Amino acid sequence: MSFRAGRHGFEEYPAGGTLLELSADVCVIGSGAGGASVACALAEAGMSVVVVEEGRNWKPQQFQPSASWAFKQLYAGRGTRATRGNCVIPLAGGRGVGGSTLINSAICFRTPAPVLAEWRERHGCEHFDDTWMNACFDRIWQAIGVTVQAPEVQGDNNRVFKRGADALGMPGQWLARSAPGCTGCGTCNQGCPTGGKLTVDRSFL
Length: 205
Ligand SMILES: Cc1cc2nc3c(=O)[nH]c(=O)nc-3n(C[C@H](O)[C@H](O)[C@H](O)COP(=O)(O)OP(=O)(O)OC[C@H]3O[C@@H](n4cnc5c(N)ncnc54)[C@H](O)[C@@H]3O)c2cc1C
What we know:
Blueprint: E1 26-29, H1 33-44, E2 49-52, H2 67-74, H3 113-123, H4 130-143, E3 147-148, H5 156-167, E4 176-177
Parallel strand pairs: 1-2
Antiparallel strand pairs: 3-4
């Protein structure tokens, strides 16, 4: 059986144990922030790429503003995933085409220059120079639609916080987010129901 290029869910996979064989230059396992951006870069470089994702391919209108629904449907281990070892640390993460970007808050920071300097000087990462990294950030931020939202969609808690900071003369700015069409409904962690958050299934992939 062969698949045309595009997205395919398990529903299309033939029942009865037929083996699906696909050929590509590269197979990327996992379609989250890392996998999707790597797949995009490889495809742009002219390679054929297959991305394999264990979770479902969701559409924004399928998301429900309910924590229990989201944990069950969108979170790895139904929201109970934790680190292994001698102490238990909860490790939330997404499961679906788009990975954790389906459920994250889309807040975007650039690695600060002093941190890049530390990586270069203490950890030998010479290629992380400010100019090169800023060019990478520019490109990525454009692809994932990073903007600062208008105060109207910031949410009451944020507006109160900002008003307080302004009154005290403290510096404070709205966060940049990969959510150019955000309507401020506040359910980012349960899947963005409007598509206003630009998750990597809809940007890089
Ligand atoms: C609730 C929450 C809020 C967050 N908020 C922010 C934020 O505001 N700003 C920010 O910068 N970061 C945020 N993050 C973190 C950010 O989303 C992650 O760091 C990032 O998505 C990690 O990318 P990744 O590719 O490593 O993994 P993921 O994005 O988690 O993708 C991994 C994918 O691989 C799939 N997979 C795993 N194993 C297999 C397998 N064997 N076969 C097939 N598929 C597999 C999974 O199903 C998943 O879809 C948040 C995370 C969470 C959970």
